[in-house]
Amino acid sequence: MALVRYNSAVSKGLSVRQLLIAFSTVLVAAATVAAQRGLQSDPGADVAKGIPSPTGRESNGGVEFINPGTPVLSDAELNSQPVPRLPDGHIDLTGPWVGGGTIADIERDGGLKPGELPLLPWAKELRDKRNSKDDPYTACLPMAVLRTNPYPWKFVMGYTSKGLTHIYILHELMDDGTHRVVYMDGRKHPAAPLPSWLGHSIGRWEGDALVVDTVGFNDKFWFDRHGTPHTEQLHIVERYTRPNYGTLLNDVTLEDPGAFARPVKLQFRARLMRPDRETGTGDLMEFICNEDNQYGSAGGFKPGTGAGNNR
Question: Which of 67, 171, 151, 140 minimizes the C-alpha distance to 289?
Fold first, then answer.
């Protein structure tokens, strides 16, 4: 029966990614219960290369996560075309991209060795006692800046008669339906920004690099499933470059004197999503986090209760 449905769906023009996401939705409840029983997923997943774990799921902190993978360019295709440019001459960073941020552990995902993330004692203690079932992201709250998942995201350039004034960063699974705004019109940060999930971002071009400076965060989100915390003193500077057709690099300077002993440098790598065979481009699909969300009820817990630094 499953094979018949698969063939029928393909005949109607559905993409492989659509089929994988639909299949993943069916498996969420069963996978979460399996995690409660102590099942562990196989290693080998690589989000930036669109490679799921061999079982199609990952286990973290006692919670099972579906990871069907998203089709991306192969290694052989990364230099298959020139790096495109926007009409104004700047490098085209649009995407969609897969990867390019942290998921399970910002220390490891950002290129550091174990123990190199300079957390203050209180922050390390809090991270080590957190459980991913309490992650605010599981309650359809926003992901952290620098955080990603196995699904695509993209930059959307906003032009007016004055040129590029805004850049919007959209994630297929941002979950709460929000979007990140990078102001490109020359404005400065507010003197006293209202603390928010995604902060206040201003950007500028430095040659072929897009530099994004962000302050004004609240302390509610987690950097990763591990529960790495931060404070409202957090300041992030991102430097996006596109060294070839299929790769996006994000070189990050992370500074938070309330949670880190010193500034830290990280690097994340994303890969271009494989274009659709019919349209020739990649698109984000609709995802509504609260629509038929069985995540918490299947596992017997109330997700997202860990927002903030009180736990």
Answer: 140
